[in-house]
Amino acid sequence: MRYHRIPNETVHRLPIYLRGLLRLSEQGRQSVSSRAFADLVNVNPWQIRKDFSYFGDFGTRGVGYSIDKLEKHIRKILRLDVVNKTALVGVGNLGSAVLAYPGFKTYGFYITAAFDSDPEKIGNTIEGIEIEDVSKICTLRERDVHLAIVAVPGSAAQQIADALVGAGVKGILNFSPVHVIVPKKVKVITIEIAMDLARLPYYMPAS
Amino acid sequence: MRYHRIPNETVHRLPIYLRGLLRLSEQGRQSVSSRAFADLVNVNPWQIRKDFSYFGDFGTRGVGYSIDKLEKHIRKILRLDVVNKTALVGVGNLGSAVLAYPGFKTYGFYITAAFDSDPEKIGNTIEGIEIEDVSKICTLRERDVHLAIVAVPGSAAQQIADALVGAGVKGILNFSPVHVIVPKKVKVITIEIAMDLARLPYYMPAS
DNA sequence: CTATGTGAATTTATTCACAGCA
DNA sequence: TGCTGTGAATAAATTCACATAG
Question: Where are the alpha helices (DSSP H) in B54-207?
Fold first, then answer.
């Protein structure tokens, strides 16, 4: 099964695995069995084995999987093996939280630019990043930034997305509660907090 | 196919449908065809028809679906047909963004309590909600709050989750980047921003 | 004897195609 | 004729069971 496309659901689990591997690596572990890893990441052992089998030979029978090899390979598959410069647009409460969030570095993301439209904020430095006017988004191309996080109000989101696409951005993580339309060569992932919350009561036991 | 369990993936799409219906409702529309709705919510028409067919008879052949009936019914399925009082724990940047976010009301969620451990913040009022000490979480039971949003650092998340469970909370929306362990009668949905971002380069076209 | 790796079986979800009602 | 509603076909993902390697 060496040459096989990786199912979408597996790709979805890859960052979860990566985080688990990182934790084991910090503990100085060299290898881990599918059983032990299952407990850590909350996925069945057979699911883990099948997922890993889609992209190669990282296990040793009787021993387990090489943490280091696996980590490197998952990073490569997800294209997290290079530094990904990322821009942030919208430095309100949510944007500030994103700037302060240390979790991005784990995956090789570095926020190297921040934009806002509020003249009060422009020129300020937050978390070591100077806030620029949104009209400067067009400079992202020459700054080699291909990823952006959008944390602006819904009413501004499409316009910002257009500017980002115009500046050569290839991937957008969208926090605004609107479906932004982009050319299909650009990938958008929208996070809708309210929708995740909306699913919660369905899965809650009867009160 | 009238009496059929609703597939998980359909439940997942329900909040998306609900938002679309709400938008149509605001425009004063009475009914919508699966084709027109498909464009709005970005799901195939046949998928929409199949999904709707799992829970009843809301369409009229030749015309379309009754927006009002459908909205009410989806709300009922998701148990969004009642006011869901919600607590927020952690009023940092992210927590403040959550408090200010208007999208929750759409789905019947009202944040009626906010907690933090910072003495500087306790007693302050933000967005009309007084910030209380985290030690007061135990009062949630008598205040009839069964839902909570956790926006605290990872190191504090498990402890906060324990307190919430102790106070009778049945559902937790977790923003902290750790897997919290709760009794299985409690449902936790964890949002991991960094993981969503981590999936983006995989889906981006080669730079 | 332990733990991987993988075909085969099963379950779940999507897509199709069209009968049937307004 | 237009659009829903749904069985049947297809596709995708999960689970199982076991041969195989260390």
Answer: 67-77, 93-100, 103-106, 154-166, 193-203
pTM above 0.85, yes or no: yes
Whether A97 and chain B come into contact, CB under 8 Å, resolves to yes
pLDDT, block means (10 residues), chain B with 207 residues: 82 97 96 97 97 92 96 96 97 95 93 98 97 98 98 96 98 92 93 94 85
A187 closest CB neighbour out of B86, B97, B200:
B200
- Could you say which of 1.10.10.10, 3.60.20.10, 3.90.230.10, 1.20.1440.20 is the CATH number of the domain covering B8-77? 1.10.10.10
How many other CB atoms sit within 10 Å of the CB of residue A172?
26
In this structure, which CATH number among 3.90.79.10, 2.60.40.10, 3.40.50.720, 3.30.70.1560 belongs to the domain B84-195?
Answer: 3.40.50.720
Distance A207 CA to C9 C1' (A): 39
Residue whose entry in the numeric block shows the structure tokens 């998952």: A74
